[in-house]
Amino acid sequence: MELAVYNIKGEETGKSISLNDSVYGIDPNDHAIYLDVKQYLANLRQGTHKTKERSEVAGSTKKIKRQKGTGTARAGDIKSPIFRGGGRTFGPRPRDYSFKLNKKVKRLARKSALSYKAKSEMIKVIEDFNLESPKTKDYISMLSNLKINEKKSLLVLNEQNKNIYLSSRNLPGVKVVTASDVTTYDIMNASVLLLVESSVDVLDNMLSN
Q: What is the pTM of this model?
């Protein structure tokens, strides 16, 4: 697949770049995408939720009424879950939500996500650029020139760039990542994928194996 290369002014540079069909042209595997996104979101969960059970709440342990003959449910003490202020029955406990996912499945998921974006013509390639200083106004101007300022965008760089990152972090619906850190969730969550020229080779080397 051949794509034109743009500059940050939104103009075609006259250059084009070829996208690797083994990365951007495969038959997408929806289940691999589902598993990778599920793992990503699961890893974000802190798992610190906790409620007190009847052995942990404060209260008397005296039996408050006789076992039978009252016409209501039996209760041992005021900490019983059937009373207001009592312990929670089978409440949540701290746990780890993360789970293992094979590297080949994660690689397949990212290639599938990239293939979806390529088929939808939602990938734009721009030449490598740098901002002289962190200015959100300059980043907004670039998005406007590329006519994607009203869409959720993901900019993929070949390496970290502090000025670009600082210029974009206050904008809603905008994210900047390096090619080595891009995730399936990031790709699927964005409407438009912006690739700088040098990041294309990094993605090819990382995913074509």
A: 0.84
